[in-house]
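Backbone shape codes:
***
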Amino acid sequence: MQHDMMTRYLALGLVACTAWMAAHAQQSLADLVSEANADWMLGKWEAQTNDGNTVTLAFSWDLNKHVVVQQGKIGDMEFKGYTALDPNTSEPKYVGFDSRGSVSKGTWGVESGELTLRLEGQSRERGSYRMAVVYGGNATAGLKLRIHQVDQWGGLVSPESTALTFKKQK
């Protein structure tokens, strides 16, 4: 009888310890941003396209660091995107919108050592599309952004269709 009681207490202790570890192992979006060494990307950025257009881009925290808001503008087109952790998978998920009626959804990851946002979307002008945005650089050299088409197997098409280097704004 005492052996059964001891086994129950050990099992209960093991379950409690496992639950505590699982609760503390869950990462926040802020943890993932830090692990990806992407903290420096927060703030306002500006770049020039080859044809002289100004592109603005900004990353900011919202909702007590549970959401990263990305917004930008090129010409007359504006866009906003929101990244949050999916509560079921703990993966960072993205949803975005633009002033032309496009809607996109995506996932963030680190691919070949680079922070990559893979997107699928619908646009009135283009129909459905798939693309990947690769973010690189650093606080000193600036934010380097590459936009790649995605092939039918999910690979990034090289060379990129667009490459921009942004400078931090105050």
